[in-house]
Amino acid sequence: DAGVTQSPTHLIKTRGQHVTLRCSPISGHKSVSWYQQVLGQGPQFIFQYYEKEERGRGNFPDRFSARQFPNYSSELNVNALLLGDSALYLCASSLSGVTDGNTIYFGEGSWLTVV
Amino acid sequence: RKEVEQDPGPFNVPEGATVAFNCTYSNSASQSFFWYRQDCRKEPKLLMSVYSSGNEDGRFTAQLNRASQYISLLIRDSKLSDSATYLCVVTLSGGYQKVTFGIGTKLQVIP
Lengths: 115, 111
Known about the structure:
heterodimer, A: mainly beta, 4-stranded antiparallel beta sheet, B: mainly beta, 6-stranded mixed beta sheet, 11 strands
């Protein structure tokens, strides 16, 4: 079975531009979460979606938005990119994401560089 | 105080050594605990869940101490391939599964 897939794997954007990152969860998983990992830090929670509804939001500005589609895939959008948005963006999927104890599985991530 | 605290290291240990990492968490209502391993420029991968009764997987042993709010990871007979960053993960449910990562502890096993 395919794991969590993300695209693109690497991209370079200019300050002020917009970016869309995509994620497909493991088959059967209904919850998708997004994390930002800056070099030297642990992943920071951005959003969680379950059954196409936003269930949780981390401490990120409104420039960050996301959505989940009927097939449970997800997009993360970032507007007005700043240099500080340069990071590894990780998508994670889990079975439900609303009950505790669910193991989360990560995709390989999207490396975003803002210049 | 950070929600999840880890010593970032690096821990440089010789092959065959035993090494232990600790992680403390601030929210006593936290419910589930995990160790993830992250290789350089790769995604985190689940190493093991952590239970109060302690659990062992080969050379790896994880322990949870709820009273003191810390979890530990012990690696015996270190291999070169164990070199990685080990992330402590704590979760809390309240409408959604809030997942908090520590900064990670870097381990370098030296020949």
